[in-house]
Amino acid sequence: MLCKEYNLSIIENPKEKGKSHYEHSLDKKGQSWKSLLRQNIDRCIIKARDWDEFLLLMQREKYEIKSGKYISFRAEGQERFTRSKTLGADYTEEQIRNRITGGKRIEIESTQRVSLIIDIENAMKERQRNPEAYKRLQSFPMC
């Protein structure tokens, strides 16, 4: 409501979350287990001729696989399973199957990608486009 009142940009219907600070810092150090899982999935997709072979290749990479409503993977020594869909739109079961068969990737609209960096960039662009709104916002008393 406040953003509309001051003519600021609003992100409509965000679909994906960005990385947590912890995940981002691990990723920068090369220690992120989600990034490693993505890399292993990508490598196995390239090698696999079908879904069963993909699952076998993932098991050879020392992942335990749980199928249910969502496919999940757990690396050796990892406490919990990770649903593949939480890795991003390219890692849902449907999309993995599609990638194995060489199907077309589902493109995600850029407006659905939400992260702190994108939010800051958009805010700076909006500030340049509409400096009056930001002047009014600066005079607004904050709690």
Contiguous helical run count? 7
Per the principal axes of the C-alpha atoms, what is the gross shape? elongated
> What strand order characterises the main sheet?
1-2-3
The SSE string, one letter per element, is HHHHEEEHHH
- End-to-end span in angstroms? 16 Å
Summing up helix and strand content along with how strands pair, one would put the structural category as mainly alpha
The biggest beta sheet reads: 3 strands, antiparallel
Low-confidence stretches: 108-114
Helix content percent band: 40-55%
| Share of β-strand residues | 5-15%
Mean of residue pLDDT? 77
Rg from Cα: 20 Å
Give me the count of strands: 3
Quick summary:
It contains seven helices and three strands, in the order H-H-H-H-E-E-E-H-H-H.
What does this structure look like?
With 143 residues, the protein is mainly alpha-helical. The chain is built from 7 helices and 3 strands. It has helices at residues 2-5, 21-29, 33-47, 51-60, 93-100, 116-129, 131-139, and strands spanning 63-66, 72-75, 82-83. The chain has a 3-stranded antiparallel beta sheet with strand order 1-2-3. Strand 2 (72-75) and strand 3 (82-83) form a beta hairpin. The protein is elongated, with a radius of gyration of 20 Å. It starts with a helix and ends with a helix. The model is unreliable at 108-114 (pLDDT under 50).
Key words describing this protein structure:
three-stranded antiparallel beta sheet
